[in-house]
Amino acid sequence: QVQLVESGGGLVQPGGSLRLSCAASGSIFSINAMRWYRQAPGKQRELVATISSGGSTTYADSVKGRFTISRAVAQNTVSLQMNSLKPEDSAVYYCNADIRGSDSYTRAYWGQGTQVTVSS
What is the reported pLDDT for 103? Predict the structure, then answer.
């Protein structure tokens, strides 16, 4: 069984920074793209950032210029550096990836989520 575990969430003041990390573990054959989503109460889950196996990145317009996604392929980890945080960034952030296991099947996996609260 593959598991994704997020870490790094917490309370931060507006204008501050926070770094989220997600580590995949288990019987992993390969991972293609890894993504960060977020969901605030009463709102749809939003795709925040994506990084491909080749390192190309995409971002939601709302976070461009402030957030940076990166990946350590050998460690099966993905990170999200969040700068200039705003109260509207407050949400539960989820790590997501399609992972091929040792049985050759590709499945979608989600982390448990980590709460980010931006408030003074």
Answer: 86
